[in-house]
Amino acid sequence: MPIVTTREAYISCPTSLKLIIQKTLSEIDRPSTFACGERLDDGANPGLLLKGHGLLGMPLSDNDARAIISQSRQSRFGRGSETVVDTSISDSWQLDPDQFQIRNGSWGSFILRLVAKVHAGFGLKCQKDRVSAELYKLLLYQRGAFFRPHSDSEIAPCMFGTLTVCLPCAHEGGELVFSHNGKSFSFKTSESSDFDMSYAAWCADVLHEVKPVTSGHRLVLIYNLIHQSQVVTDLPSASVFNSEQTRLVKGFRGWDPPRYPQPEYLIHKLAHQYSQASLRADRLKGADLAQLSFLREVAAETGIDLYLANMEKHATKSDERWARNQVLSVDIVLTYVVTLDGSRVDHPNRTVYIKSNNLIDTTDGQHYKEDHRGFTGNEGATAEYWYSGTVFCNIGPSTEMEI
Ligand SMILES: O=C(O)CCC(=O)C(=O)O
Ligand SMILES: [Fe+2]
Question: Per the database record, which ranges form the Fe2OG dioxygenase domain (predicted)?
Fold first, then answer.
């Protein structure tokens, strides 16, 4: 039996590239990130009770910090399938959950609120109640302590990430730095550390580090994020973000120029319709915003240009009340084209005509107006439909769309 590789499949059917792009974009249906974090002004005091010592006050005093250290061991972390101590990687102090208690009864619902933030931030598609956070350890960083770049191994079944709550305890330094797939960003726990808390969460496969603490103490509760998934492949991970991006890049690069020249532009319909005033990247919502962030990455990699536009489509069809609903003619025009920052680039007095072949998705959606003409001469009964929408235009690197 002949084996058809994906590459051959692309070559034999250029429409499949549009399908790849369409399918991938349709799966990016909500904003998502592989790491998130923010200051929390409404954090409750967990009421940490250290066995043999008593309640730990918040912000943590130097005296209570010494009490924690006296009962701690060097922090451990997952390396492959093992849990190891290596002070060249991390030299913070660790308490295990059986060495302390969280006495505040409302702490559980506070953690659930954080899990809901993670669920939204990661754009998880499962129900919120499929995700939970299991207490793993309490870490204390003294001045000079750090955690070198590492990713978290799955120390619990169906663990997909880590949630941390940095408790009130003034410190400088100690910021979290995340890097994945050539992108990196940092989050400063110190900024809210005097009296407030902050949370951070990341997918287990994201490389992260804690920069050295330069003064004070950094006190963090660490939770494993668990996904009650039946199917192991459902587990969220940062590499899912990569694979969506890779598929899109493949889609845009996959045209085989000698046989099927790359179209000079492609049009992708947005989920929402935007007025001219809100036609700019920073006003996009929901799935549109999420898709834009992916398309931006893809544009940087492939050299395509991105524009936003309002589109009008006018179709004349045979009237379905009398005959099969056959399309007789279609006109598609862009009525307002802008760069991502909202600057208009089309000429107000010139119409930009679009070939329907360049639409990634040719389904019409709901028309906003229709007109049934009845029988006219030889043409039979016709009906006209008008559609409108907002679109992304992805223009190939070496071509210009005539506007
Ligand atoms: O201290 C932190 O904020 C992160 C700790 C960490 O990465 C870990 O325990 O694996
Ligand atoms: Fe970690």
Answer: 132-229
Task: Indicate if 119 and 188 belong to the same structural domain.
Answer: yes
- Which residues 6+ apart lie within 8 Å of 63 measured at CB? none
Q: Which two tokens stand for residue 247?
A: 């598929």
Residues 115 and 224 in one domain: yes
For residue 40, being part of any structural domain is answered with yes
Helix (H) or strand (E) holding 244: helix 238-253
pLDDT, average across residues 145-165:
90
In a domain, 387, yes or no: yes
**How confident is the model over 318-361, as pLDDT tens digits?**
876 655 668 888 888 888 899 999 999 888 888 888 888 788 88
Whether residue 95 contacts residue 46, with contact meaning beta carbons closer than 8 Å, is answered with: no
Say yes or no: CB of residue 77 within 6 Å of ligand 1: yes
Q: Is residue 1 part of a domain?
A: no
Output the domain CATH number for residue 109: 2.60.120
**158 close to 228: Cβ distance less than 8 angstroms:** yes
Look at residue 11 in the predicted model and tell me its pLDDT. Answer: 32
Expressed in angstroms and rounded, the spacing between residue 252 Cα and the centre of ligand 1 is 38
Separation in Å, CA 285 to CA 67, 74, 109, 289: 49, 46, 29, 5
For the CA of 37, the nearest ligand: 1
**Considering the entire predicted model, what is its pTM?**
0.69
Cβ of 163 closer than 6 Å to ligand 1, yes or no, is: no
**pLDDT score for 77:** 81
CB of 210 closer than 6 angstroms to any ligand 1 atom? yes
Considering the domain architecture, whether residues 185 and 46 belong to the same structural domain is answered as: yes
Predicted ipTM > 0.90: yes
Domain with 265 in it: 6-26+243-395
Q: How far apart are CA 217 and CA 139, in angstroms?
A: 10
Q: Which of 363, 364, 337 is nearest to 351 (CA)?
A: 337
Task: Give the residue from 184, 214, 234 where a domain finishes.
Answer: 234
167 lines ligand 1 (CB under 6 A): no
Residue to probe by mutation, ligand 1, list 83, 139, 155, most atoms within 8 Å of CB: 139
Same domain, 115 and 222: yes
- Please tell me the distance between residue 138's alpha carbon and the centre of ligand 2 in angstroms: 12
Q: Is the CB of 34 under 6 A from ligand 1?
A: no
The answer to the question of residue 314 being in a domain is yes
Kindly state the tokens that stand for 258.
Answer: 């000698």
Tell me the ligand closest to 220's alpha carbon: 1
Our answer on whether the CB atom of 164 is closer than 6 Å to any ligand 1 atom is: yes
